Amino acid sequence: MTDAPSDRRHHLGGPRALGAAVLSVSDTHSEEDDPSGHLARSLLAAAGHRIVRYLLVANSVADVRDALDPLLADRAVEVVVTVGGTGVSSRDLTVTALEGMGGRELPGFGEIYRSVSFEEVGPLAILSRAALYVLQGKPVFALPGSERAVRTAVERLIVPSVQHLVEELER
């Protein structure tokens, strides 16, 4: 009997707690009232990762980029998870901000996220621009802002793959 792909251990080293930053992007929430940002932090911590930074910024290209620059420069931050701003409305600007930061997109994440999301919400999954970029050698996951979307992405995709992704980027 073979292990399911998410159960396989394909790491260069042993289990490793990564330094994670969570960046919530919202015009309607505050740091005190950010259920999806709180959930992302809780799920990453429950998987053994260290939450080294948390920020909440307005949904603007400049604010997202201004918040990401110091996170990416911080040696303690090995992975960034953004929450919110990945929809199709004119106010959803997280992906637009990431696209212009000079990194590269790893399209498999968004493709698989939408496939998994389709199982949960049906055709509305096409409205998500969830994405994964490599910026300054670090993975930056852009997740939708709903708690359901955060749980799906973190539990089913990020936690099983992020350690190997970081190790590959460090090679």
Secondary-structure map:
Elements: E1 19-25, H1 35-46, E2 50-57, H2 61-73, E3 79-83, H3 94-99, E4 104-105, H4 107-121, E5 131-135, E6 138-143, H5 147-170
Helix pairs in contact: 1-5, 4-5
What low-confidence regions span 5 or more consecutive residues with pLDDT below 50?
1-9
Note the main sheet: 6 strands, mixed
Task: Give the radius of gyration.
Answer: 15 Å
Helix and strand run: EHEHEHEHEEH
- Average predicted confidence as pLDDT: 93
User: What is the overall shape?
Assistant: globular
Give the strand line-up of the largest sheet.
2-1-3-6-5-4
CATH homologous superfamily (4th level) name: MoaB/Mog-like domain
Give an overview in words.
With 171 residues, this protein is of the alpha/beta class. It has one domain (18-170): Molybdenum Cofactor Biosythetic Enzyme, Chain A, CATH 3.40.980.10. Helix content is 41%, strand content 19%. A six-stranded mixed beta sheet has the order 2-1-3-6-5-4, with helices on both faces. α1 links the parallel β1 and β2. The protein is globular and about 40 Å long. The relative contact order is 0.19.
Observed structural traits:
171 residues; alpha/beta; Molybdenum Cofactor Biosythetic Enzyme, Chain A; six-stranded mixed beta sheet; 5 helices; 19% strand; disordered N terminus
Please outline what is shown here.
The protein has 171 residues and is of the alpha/beta class. 41% of the residues lie in helices and 19% in strands.
